[in-house]
Amino acid sequence: MNTAQKGFTLIELMIVIAIIGILAAIAIPQYQNYVTRAKWAENNTSIAPLKLAIAECAQDKQGALGSCDTLAELTAATGYPSLPNPTNGTVTLTESTAAVVVTGTAEVGSCVVTWTPTVNDNAIDWSAATSGTDCTKAQTGV
After folding, report:
1. Region class of 97: left (phi > 0), else alpha (psi between -120 and 50), else beta
2. Residue 1: predicted pLDDT
3. Comparing C-alpha atoms, which of 73, 54, 42, 24 is closest to residue 119?
4. Average pLDDT for 70-80
């Protein structure tokens, strides 16, 4: 007389656990990169008004970025009040180039993203460069 099998065998359970482990090994690092990139998106979005103020100032000064490289000059030219204070980093303005430097906190990998303006005809183009250990596009989004 045969009895019906009830439940799963040990091999079947081990295979399921192995599959879950493989999926977790792939998904967890991707999720961590996603979270870091989202925090960097907030950092990069917070400097948009500053970039706009630099562009407006440069337009008023006939493209002279050196005249728009300090907070005092931006305030005088455009009324821009203060540098942004993002949650996951700090923002500084580089004199002589008007480059915006965003330094991330340890929570976002301590990366540094430098946004450098260049004047082309009647437009300002912004280029981003990253520095620091493991500061890739997967982390910073730039």
Report:
1. alpha
2. 64
3. 54
4. 90
